[in-house]
Amino acid sequence: MGIWVYDKQTIEFDDFSVKELTSTSSYNSGSNSNGSNAAAPSSPSGSNNENTTRTNTTVDKSTGNFTTDLKTIIASGSQNFADIKGDEIDPTAKYFKDYYSSVKLPGAMETKISNILGLTHYTYFGPYSSQSAAFSKVEEMVGKLKGILTDHYYTKVPNSTEIQYSIGKNASGGYEKKYISVYDFKDSKTGEYKVVLAVYAYSSYKQPRYYFISSSADNGSDFGGKLNKVIRAGADSFISLRGEKHKGWLSDYYDPTLTLPGGENAKLSKFIYHSYDCTFYDGTSEYEANSKYNELIEKVKRAVGSNFVYKDEYDDGKGSKTYTYSLSMKADQKTFANYPDVKIMRSFSSSSNKYEVKISVSKSFDW
């Protein structure tokens, strides 16, 4: 449903949610000195999150007003929560650090700031003896947020085992990337259910913006019909398009049985995820590369239509000899949740002094 526009490449995990609470440490600060435990997510392999006994000097800045404290947390997210980040919960942790938060929402059982896959402020509610009670709390929480954040969208993510809402700001012609999630989960140790309100930090990039495509999908043209066939095949790992199999350096790849009109050297491969790649320009002319890139953007927009949303990106290669412009499109998750993403890329490599323009259809993790 939209487009990202930002200054530098970031890695984001849009649907990441913490499922386990394992290590505990007493949280006794200010008016919230109720002895509740500030729990941390399960430690990834290789980390060292042993519990330690130490004095927590975090100053409580909570006001006891839900709206005021929520807006404080959100505003702090633009600064990586620096003004509300307290002591480390476990100073011995080697890789992933968790911190006490100086702001705790009324009614919360636990709160902390975690740097697993990016800084996130977690507030936990519960525990609840049944999943239905946790579901009710999620809906109650979302209802409360709707009364406070009135210019936001609230998208219920399809999931059979939990309720999860993605929340972000509406914007002209589209909307911004979500920065709040509300979801429930079952604590595997206690068997109890808990509800999480997660606020994500966004200081390292402009909040990504998605843009709508107003036209309907074009299946009638040669290009549109074939691109949409590739997209539909991508929902099932492109199995229906697999031709001759080849041995690759990292993994096997296939010659697809379909090449997009105007393209060449199409390939089906899997490195982390399945992808269909087709090259439309490979040469030394910047003008021709830019012309082909802009042409493909318009052709792909017409082909996928309002079923998709899009975002612009620029990657400077971070010191490498390659930089890339790209436009990414993602299917409407409420209708086409299993569809792959479509990306048009124009890259330049100073080592070969060549430009490349290609279309890639794949399942990815950067939304």
Structure description:
The chain is of the alpha+beta class. The protein folds into two domains: 30-207, no CATH class; 213-362, no CATH class. The chain contains four helices and 18 strands. It has helices spanning 66-77, 131-148, 222-234, 286-304; strands at 85-88, 98-101, 110-114, 120-128, 152-157, 164-171, 174-176, 180-186, 193-200, 209-212, 242-246, 253-256, 264-271, 273-283, 308-315, 322-331, 341-349, 354-362. Helix 3 (222-234) crosses helix 4 (286-304). The radius of gyration is 23 Å and the shape is elongated. Mean pLDDT is 79; it is low at 1-52 and 315-321.
Domain module tally: 2
Mean pLDDT: 79
Proportion of helical residues: 10-25%
Order of helices and strands: HEEEEHEEEEEEHEEEEHEEEE
Major sheet summary line: 18 strands, antiparallel
Shape: elongated
Sheet-strand content, in percent, reads: 25-35%
CA radius of gyration is 23 Å
Count of β-strands: 18
Structural class, from helix and strand content?
alpha+beta
Instruction: Report the span from N to C terminus.
Output: 11 Å
Please, what is the oligomeric state?
single chain
Total DSSP helices: 4
Q: pLDDT below 50 for ≥5 consecutive residues: which ranges? A: 1-52, 315-321
Give a brief rundown of this model.
It contains 4 helices and 18 strands. The chain is of the alpha+beta class and 367 residues long. The protein has 2 domains: 30-207, no CATH class; 213-362, no CATH class.
Strand-helix topology:
Elements: H1 66-77, E1 85-88, E2 98-101, E3 110-114, E4 120-128, H2 131-148, E5 152-157, E6 164-171, E7 174-176, E8 180-186, E9 193-200, E10 209-212, H3 222-234, E11 242-246, E12 253-256, E13 264-271, E14 273-283, H4 286-304, E15 308-315, E16 322-331, E17 341-349, E18 354-362
Antiparallel strand pairs: 1-2, 2-3, 3-4, 4-9, 5-6, 6-7, 6-8, 7-10, 8-9, 10-15, 11-12, 12-13, 13-14, 14-18, 15-16, 16-17, 17-18
